[in-house]
Here is the input.
Amino acid sequence: MKHPPALSKHKARKRFGQNFLHDSHIIGSIVRSINPQPSDHIIEIGPGQGALTAEIVGHCERLDAIELDRDLLTLLLASFSIHKGFHLHNQDALKTDYRSLYCGRPIRVVGNLPYNISTPLILALFEYSDLIQDMHFMLQSEVVDRLCASPNTKAWGRLGILAQYLCRVERILDVAPEAFDPAPKVQSAVVRLVPKPSADIDRIQLGKLQKLVKQAFAQRRKTLRNNLKGWVSDAEMEAVGIDPGCRAESISLQKWVTLSDGIESQ
Ligand code: SAM
Here is the structure.
């Protein structure tokens, strides 16, 4: 993409997690995996200087871009307001009410996310999974490891359990620091999250599952018996084949779901 002259004046801000993509091959690979369609409603989080926006906006019906940094708005409007479906929102993606952006068809969410807010943002977006067709995010590689993790690994925890309960999760692409300007200190990766049909998700059970895994992983080195003391009894764990003397990281998604199903809300 050819950037307008105003771009060169923008100094990347650390506090906004600004690492701008500048590798056209990587940008092309990400956009191909998103595969925007003419009828799509896409929400882009953190368009920055428009590296991804430029390759998507002409290929979908509507693109809502949510950008917190006021200094990027002029550039974004100058570059993309020519597209009828482009809507720019100067707001915090963590505080956005995504339901208010819903136009009647499933939303596709994309973004090279600011790494400092990526985990809370993904957890917040899970609340809207019934509206979402899919999500494609560039993240710190370690966060993608956690999203895709399996039991009995260090990466297995609250994020992976909730993600895999709600979505099909797929690691798409590993990205080296040189693809960004400035280059981050960490490796990055792109992940695809596809929410399961909303009919399959029991929201009451989801609430219990969220609380259960939060408490069970509160102190990873402690046993389940200790972390869940006063809420889940040994008998309730044993009834679903869980040894109360083991640690949370050894329990599979299926067992977490079965356990949360059988206990009272705290
Ligand atoms: N999409 C651009 C790219 O790939 O080059 C920029 C990605 S940069 C990693 C993250 C972007 O998110 C920045 O433009 C930053 O200003 C914006 N941002 C940071 N915190 C945000 C927040 N809470 N809500 C919305 N945007 C935010």
